[in-house]
């Protein structure tokens, strides 16, 4: 393993860092040290003290009561220094996935008596703040509590010496700046939103999520020095923005001509003769927004803008020419209102530190559609667009538009790369073509000319598509079976044909049918509208036999299992057939993931029931999206018997024509509703008969 890491580092060079997880000892045994020890130091330095991995993530148990007396982080710090390794290349693991800020941590073991940490901090699954929240406000509150403190004020962070109460990461983290050169432009975007705004105008009401559009946000959340009688508080506001999906809102009581100063950024910016600084903001009443600059020598300079704020978005410019050749180490805003207001508000939309404005960017060339997929009805499309980058080197991002029939544009999304995926692009009525274009935007918020149109051609979806599911395919004589119509929504009428049923035809949307005689029967559905019709026939779908009296038998309980992979022994394949919803099979890595059940002998199967992530208490976005069910008699040659494309539910049932099989395989090609590639199956129940029908 040591040699593998060395070779990896040699090939990766300085492009990639490798962090070693504290799990294996020098002898190759799985034995978590929860510290840097002589048993695992070989993964950071070899016998000749040559470097191996770049860093180490220390397992979570250093904070447990049974290990507390060993002061493992302190010892790790000492060993690192002895080995010539920075102690801050060690990351003390804390698992916050389940309990977040309620996770008990012995913070007195993390830092010395002067509150200086022994190591760096490694948080496992800090997206707990999102996964455990039902609203945006709850999410933001938990974000603040986790990273800052429960008062959302880093100046009030107090190191914990005796309590396991979460003090906030800001207690131990010294702020450092990502803002080290010009240009620096931020619209305070969080990379998502419920609307999209361009120059203060709402151009889209669709939810969106694009982390590449996340801006550099304030270093401090939040440091506000309120003047006497003022009570401003800051928050991220999703209801309005100047650019993107949110702005920063300052709200609360303000006294006339009494300033409140909000500290925004730590910086390391050199001012040149060409430097331009501007702020785009608005306020509920006439207001002043002065720029407060902290210089490298510790002095502060307050610069008055060239105009005041009002109820509409206003861009204020600041003359920083007297600061030429000086270094800015901090940026703040000093806000004051012209009148006393108990419910005052101000919104910060954009802050820009740039050189002199240049001409607008050149238009984009070679826009093309690289790939397209359509839903079964031809109503929605997924489209991969790409284009050639513009020649201007001061580009900020690109905007993607749909060209409407009247020549107007509809905003579809934005990106700072030269490609974009349009998810669920909706077809406009029955039009067979949709025109798309791309517009470049530079750091001065100037838009270049639109590109030439590229045309998406839609499939002919005028005729409806016929599709259905059935609650049971294997039943005893006299049984009633329910059929569910899944035809495309443009169908206006239906015709069902049921071989062998007491009622052989139906025009109901979701009929219920009785079969009295034993046999194997076909089912046909025809979906119609004014443009025509299409049909589907499921041959030998329904099997009626006296052997299927009562409920179907669960054939898979504690069956022998195998899988393409699994994360660890507590999430092994056998957990999917143990009858419990608090255990699961979980596999990570690139899909497809496969889970195979050996039922022990050849029998008759006709249904597979799956319990997905939400059934086990996880988030619905982790539910399995798409999979195939396969069966085999010999474990070598498999046949597809059921396919699911767009599941969102916590539990699912796949029924199919009764077939003889010993092996049943689940092949998951879309493990979740989102980009996560880990599959989570809490139960896989195979249903049928304990005997073959032949």
Can you tell me about this structure?
With 694 residues, the chain is mainly β. The chain is 7% helix and 42% strand. The chain has six helices and 44 strands. The mean pLDDT is 94.
Quick tags:
six-stranded antiparallel beta sheet; globular; mainly beta; 6 helices
Estimate the global geometry from the Cα principal axes.
globular
**Into which percentage range does the β-strand content fall?**
35-45%
Low-confidence stretches: none
Distance from N terminus to C terminus (CA atoms, Å) equals 54 Å
Q: How many DSSP-defined strands? A: 44
What class do helices, strands and sheet pairing give? Answer: mainly beta
How helical, in percent, are the residues?
under 10%
Determine the mean pLDDT.
94
Radius of gyration: 31 Å
* Sheet with the most strands, sense and barrel status: 7 strands, antiparallel
Number of helices: 6
Topology:
Layout: H1 2-12, E1 19-21, E2 55-58, H2 65-68, H3 72-83, E3 90-95, H4 107-110, E4 120-124, H5 128-131, H6 136-147, E5 184-186, E6 192-193, E7 196-198, E8 201-204, E9 208-209, E10 223-226, E11 233-237, E12 243-244, E13 247-254, E14 260-270, E15 276-283, E16 287-295, E17 300-303, E18 314-318, E19 327-337, E20 341-354, E21 365-374, E22 380-388, E23 395-403, E24 409-415, E25 419-426, E26 433-442, E27 454-457, E28 468-470, E29 474-475, E30 479-485, E31 493-498, E32 505-506, E33 512-515, E34 519-529, E35 532-544, E36 553-554, E37 560-563, E38 585-587, E39 593-611, E40 626-632, E41 639-644, E42 651-670, E43 679-681, E44 683-689
Parallel strand pairs: 1-2, 2-3, 3-4, 29-35
Antiparallel strand pairs: 5-20, 6-9, 7-8, 7-12, 10-14, 11-13, 13-20, 14-19, 15-18, 15-20, 16-17, 16-19, 21-22, 22-25, 23-24, 23-26, 26-27, 28-30, 30-33, 31-32, 31-34, 34-35, 36-44, 37-39, 38-43, 39-42, 39-44, 40-41, 40-42
